[in-house]
């Protein structure tokens, strides 16, 4: 029994939509992005779990709010959510 990666992506997308609706995450893709390893002190803004030093951490800046840190998988879910929204609006 392995966890289904598609299932977790769907969960993350649902969570991303909720966070964007609440204004907790920006509703469009932020250009300023740095990638590095986690510090065990930073929590992911999407799933709420700590990003450990063996995991890649994405940090978004310039979103008009404090910096946002995400796991790489959480970043992908949030980015896809933003792209879908902006695509629908234009
Ligand atoms: Zn996460």
Can you summarize this structure?
With 90 residues, the protein is an alpha+beta fold. Helix content is 39%, strand content 16%.
Per-chain topology:
Layout lengths: L4 H17 L11 E5 L18 E5 L7 E4 H18 L1
Antiparallel strand pairs: 1-2, 2-3
Helix pairs in contact: 1-2
This protein binds zinc ion.
The site of zinc ion has 7 residues, from β3.
What does this structure look like?
- There is one protein chain.
- The chain is α+β, with helices and mostly antiparallel strands.
- The chain has one domain (5-89).
- The chain contains two helices and three strands; from the N terminus they run αβββα.
- It has helices spanning 5-21, 72-89; strands at residues 33-37, 56-60, 68-71.
- A three-stranded antiparallel beta sheet has the order 1-2-3.
- Helix 1 (5-21) crosses helix 2 (72-89).
- It is globular and about 35 Å long.
- The chain starts with a helix and ends with a helix.
- The model has no long low-confidence stretch (mean pLDDT 86).
- Zinc ion (ZN) binds at residues 44, 46-47, 49, 70-71, 74.
């Amino acid at each position: 029994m392995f966890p289904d990666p598609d299932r977790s992506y769907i969960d993350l997308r649902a969570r991303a939509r909720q966070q964007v609706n609440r204004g907790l995450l920006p509703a469009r893709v932020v250009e300023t992005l740095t990638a590095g390893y986690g510090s065990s002190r930073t929590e992911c803004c999407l799933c709420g779990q700590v990003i450990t030093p063996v995991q890649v951490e994405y940090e978004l800046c310039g979103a008009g709010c404090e910096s946002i840190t995400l796991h790489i998988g959480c970043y992908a879910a949030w980015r896809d959510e933003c792209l879908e929204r902006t695509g629908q609006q234009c």
